[in-house]
Amino acid sequence: MSESGRKVVIGIGLLLATGALIGWSYGHVERGLLIAALLILVWMLRSLIIFERSIHSGEFNAFQYGDGIWQQMASRFRYERDRGDRYKSQRLQLLKEIRRSTRAMPDGAIILDEQLEIITCNRAAKTLVGLKPKKDRGQRVDNIIRDPALTELLRADDPTMTVDIESPMQDSAWLNCRLVPYGAGQKLLIIRDVTERIRLNKMRRDFVANASHELRSPLTVICGYLDSLAGDAAVPEDLRQPILQMQAQAQRMSIIVADLMQLSRVESSGRAGDEEHVDVTAVLTAAARAYAGLESSPDIQVEGDASIRILGITREIESVVANLISNAVRHTPKSGHLKLCWRKAENGAELIVSDDGEGIAEEHIPRLTERFFRVDRGRSREGGGIGLGLAIVKHILQRHDARLEISSTPGQGSEFRCCFPAARISAAT
Q1: Is CATH 3.40.50.300 the classification given to domain 105-193?
Q2: 156 pLDDT more than 50
Q3: Residue 348's beta-bridge partner residues?
Q4: Is 4 exposed, middle or buried (0-12, 13-18, 19+ CB in 10 A)?
Q5: Which of 346, 340, 273, 343 is CA-nearest to residue 308?
Q6: Which of 19, 24, 87, 120 is least enclosed by beta carbons within 10 angstroms?
Q7: Mean pLDDT for the stretch of residues 328-355
Q8: For residues 189 and 173, what is the distance between their CA atoms, to the nearest angstrom?
Q9: Fold of the domain built from segment(s) 197-268
């Protein structure tokens, strides 16, 4: 108990004792106690009314002097009130700074509640997607921004997932969207203008496709003449080796051009159709048979569930298998083993190509699907690798709503896992 509290208790006790003593002197102790209790009650009610009035008015002059319990309560109240005013001022200032910073952001920011309804947005969101905060507040964001990719993003609720959508405000403009957690039960939809990136990517794809197309015809002529010279007995012996080297490099260039054209085609294509029922087990078996007679090929085992098929494009799935096997064979010694597996998974099916070859360092794995990326450039060039196979695999899988997962340990081997969703899986008829 505080000092002021003890004083109040002692004062009440003394007043009651005084009343009892006076009542005893007149022969009525209980009346003395009753009168003393009424006096205490009146004093407490008076102090309470004055305190309540001071709270509303903000003036505590009546409790300015003294150290009683009411003075202590008034002092504590004034302290908490002043501290609350300071915190309120700080919060208002912080809120102003946040609003000022969000207004300066080039990216759009939309705060959503648990039902994905709009709470507020910044100035950039108004410009990028045409939101009207007062009118659109309380509306579901996918009712305002209608795009299947955005709907998929909201449904997935994955902070690492991003989608590109067409701008509802400008033709030929593109926006990148990401949904991240924000506050208690809220989400933040971040919208960024990526028109320039999309335009540059399209320019790059068009350039690669056009350049590859233009290179194909002269390369065909060059390869034809080199093939003729290589088989001509009249060619001097000192020129035969240079001709064979030119022939090998011309064939390599033809492979590069073909891969570039395929990569440009799958990059610029949309989602793959689902008209064909691809027998993956048959594709794996045929690919393994093609490598069976090669001198440098390791032992290849096939484990496939022929009862499940992929709804997609057969030639593209064949390209995925061919590139994965070719990549594994180049990095696995003849004494090694290569395993091809096609099986059901928890959420669809998996195509797995695993080997016990040289493996890949962990820092190189995120870059394996980049164009022309090679861990060992010299060795890859000698073995025929050009760094486009896994890029082709990634884009074909994306067209089939699938993803590529890579795991590897140096000296122990690698595993390339193609995960297909259940919507792309069908049963064999």
Answers
A1: no
A2: yes
A3: 345, 421
A4: middle
A5: 343
A6: 87
A7: 90
A8: 18
A9: Helix Hairpins (1.10.287)
